[in-house]
Amino acid sequence: MSHNLTLAQNHAFDLARTLMVPVILFQADNEFGVMVSSEYDGDQDAIVHEYAPWSPAH
Fold it and tell me: What is the mean pLDDT of each run of 10 residues along the chain (58 residues)?
């Protein structure tokens, strides 16, 4: 978990490209986390962004 959104976004995109699977960047309280999209079963409102490995960085 990270308190820095920019750092979490960079790690999320890197993880998606490394694993070649979509990952979810989510917020829990004041922290951000990243996990494989297929494993995420949390609150849909907590999702900040989904990163796909075949999409360009933004």
Answer: 91 94 96 96 96 79
* Alpha carbon distance 15, 19 (integer Å): 6
Eight-class DSSP state of 10: H
- pTM (2 d.p.): 0.86
**∠ Cα 13 15 48 (to 5°):** 50
At which residue do the structure tokens 């989904």 appear? 50
- Could you report how far apart the first and last alpha carbons of the chain are, in Å? 21
For the chain, give the DSSP string.
-BS-HHHHHHHHHHHHHHHTS-EEEEEETTEEEEEEGGG--S-GGGEEEEE-TTSPP-
